[in-house]
Amino acid sequence: MMVSTEKLSTVTFIKLRDFIYEKSGIFFAENKLYLLENRVGRRLRALDKETYENYLVFITKGGGNREELNFLYNEITINETYFFRYSKQLDFFTKQLLPNLLKECQEQGNNTIRIWSAASSSGEELYTIGMLIKEEINGAMTNWSFDLQGTDISKRILEKAQNGCYTKNSFRGEAPTYYKSKYFTIDGNNFRLKDSIKDMASFGYLNLNDHFKTRSMRDMDFIFCRNVLIYFDEEMKKQVVHALYGVLNHGGYLFLGEAESLHGVSSAFKVEHFRGAFVYKKE
C-alpha cells in the first residue's frame, strides 16, 4: 500500500504533541510541527499507515500503545552522544570532584559512590565515566563500590548500551587513543567494550516524566543529565530538576550539557567552576 503524502495538520499535530507531552514530558512547540511530521512520518511508513490521524488513533488506543510508544520515543529523541564528550566537564570530574568525594567518603567510612546517567542513550557517557574511574582509582578498585546506573526512555537504545558494541562514530576528537586501545577490542569495523568496564554499569528504562520512579533513584553522588532539558518546556524542566535535586545526596553534583543552564529553572543549586567548566552542587 502506498502511504499518503498528506501533511500533518495543525489539529492533529496539537493532539499528537499533547499526547507525547502527557506521556513523556517531551514538548514540541508550534514551530516544530515540521520536525514531528518528519519523525512520526517514519513510523507511518514502517506501519503502513495512510494518515497521521490514523497513526494518532493507533498510538492513543486504550490510553496509549506502549509498544509503539517505545518506537516513537526512539524517533523523537536524538540520541547523539560519543565517548569523552565535554572534556572540560570530565576534567572537572576526575581532577577535583571525584578525588574530593573519595577523600570525604574515606573519612566517613563510606566506600560506595553512586552515579546516574539520567538519559544514557547508547551508553557512551556512562562507560566513559567508568573508564575515568578505573584510571583514577587504579589498583584500589577492590576498596570501593561504584554503582553506575544509566536510564533512558528508549528501550531500543538501551539494548545498544547493554551490548557495548560501537562504531568509529562513537569516537571523535575528544576520545583519547589510549582508552580506545586499553578498554576495547576491535571486531571488524566495530569496537567492543571490555567486560572490565561493561560490568561496572547497569542500564534500565526510566521516563523522567514519571516522578515517582525518578525519586526511587535516591542517594546519588553525581547525576549526569546532559542535553536532556532541551526536550522539555519550562514547567517540565522545573519538575525534572526538582526531582533530580531530591535524589542527590547533600554535596552531590548535577552535570548539564555545556549549552544548558538552570537559570530561571532552579535556584536550589550552587554553581561551581573549574577551568572553563561548571557544575551544579547540592549543598
Explain this structure to me?
There is one protein chain. With 283 residues, the chain is α/β, with parallel strands linked by helices. Helix content is 44%, strand content 18%. It has eleven helices and ten strands. A seven-stranded mixed beta sheet has the order 6-2-1-7-8-10-9. It has a three-stranded antiparallel beta sheet with strand order 3-5-4. α5 packs across α6 (124-137). 33% of the residues are buried. The mean pLDDT is 93.
SSE inventory with pairings:
Elements: H1 10-24, H2 33-47, H3 52-60, H4 66-76, H5 87-108, E1 112-117, H6 124-137, E2 145-152, H7 155-163, E3 165-166, H8 177-183, E4 184-187, E5 190-193, H9 195-198, E6 201-205, H10 211-215, E7 220-224, H11 234-247, E8 248-255, E9 270-274, E10 277-281
Parallel strand pairs: 1-2, 1-7, 2-6, 7-8
Antiparallel strand pairs: 3-5, 4-5, 8-10, 9-10
Helix pairs in contact: 1-3, 2-4, 5-6
Structure annotation, total helices: 11
Which second-level CATH architecture of the largest domain applies? 3-Layer(aba) Sandwich
Strand composition percent = 15-25%
Span between termini: 59 Å
Assign the CATH topology of the largest domain: Rossmann fold
Helix content range: 40-55%
Global geometry: globular
In CATH, what is the homologous superfamily of the largest domain? Vaccinia Virus protein VP39
Features:
single chain; 283 residues; alpha/beta; Chemotaxis Receptor Methyltransferase Cher, domain 1; Rossmann fold; 2 domains; seven-stranded mixed beta sheet; three-stranded antiparallel beta sheet; 10 strands
